[in-house]
Task: inverse folding
């Protein structure tokens, strides 16, 4: 009896099996390398304060900051596949992109949108931020919208001038000019606000000293009488 082996069929089966195994391996690698909705939920939960502060610094309005935060979360979850190690930076980018769409900052607007900032103390995690931190934030919020976006994106978020110009849809020279002016404005604002805080602190100390001296006057006669 002669046994005939179809080597072509064996090779074809082996090739198909290899292709299936490679496909399964690719799927497993893809599932482990790319961020999913659970990853972005965790990131937005863990970095909630920082992401909200980014939204607030860009929009200078609490209501718009919340809107920007929510839209950024939705875009991050429903967007294109992103490597896990890029997920946090992508979440911040989603916030920036939504803020740009919401505010639509343009060079030399001069519309004073920065004046819509909050007048009550800023908080982080339910606790008031330190006075010096509030001074820095207030100085950024006082900038005109385009300058504020340029400062936050290039200085605080470390984007290149080219990336910033692409995000804002403007020329690179506009980014350079806005950042230079922003530095001057922030420097002046921080100096002024620090001076105001120092004066307020001095007044508080003087008031406390006056109260103490009054108490001394009230208490001293009693001590003399009792002596």
Result:
């Amino acid at each position: 009896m002669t046994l005939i082996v179809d080597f072509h069929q064996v090779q074809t089966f082996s090739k198909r099996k290899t292709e299936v195994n490679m496909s399964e391996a690719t799927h497993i690698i893809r599932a482990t390398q790319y961020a999913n909705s659970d990853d972005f939920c965790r990131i937005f939960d863990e970095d909630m304060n920082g992401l909200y502060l980014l939204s607030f610094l860009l929009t200078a309005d609490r209501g718009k900051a919340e809107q920007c935060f929510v839209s950024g979360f939705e875009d991050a979850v429903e967007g294109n596949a992103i490597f896990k190690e890029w997920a946090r930076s992508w979440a911040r980018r989603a916030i920036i992109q939504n803020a740009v769409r919401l505010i639509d900052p343009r060079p030399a607007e001069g519309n004073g949108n920065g004046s819509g900032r909050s007048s009550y103390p800023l908080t982080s995690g339910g606790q008031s931020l330190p006075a010096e931190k509030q001074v820095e934030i207030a100085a950024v919020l006082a900038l005109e919208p385009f300058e504020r976006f340029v400062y936050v994106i290039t200085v605080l978020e470390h984007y290149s001038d080219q990336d910033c110009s692409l995000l804002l849809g403007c020329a690179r020279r506009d980014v350079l000019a806005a950042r230079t002016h922003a530095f001057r404005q922030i420097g002046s604002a921080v100096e002024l606000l620090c001076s105001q805080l120092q004066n307020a602190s001095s007044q508080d100390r003087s008031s406390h000293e006056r109260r103490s001296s009054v108490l001394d006057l009230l208490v001293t006669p009693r001590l003399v009488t009792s002596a």
Q: What stands out?
A: The CA atoms of residues 211 and 217 lie 10 Å apart. The chain has two domains: 34-104, 116-227.
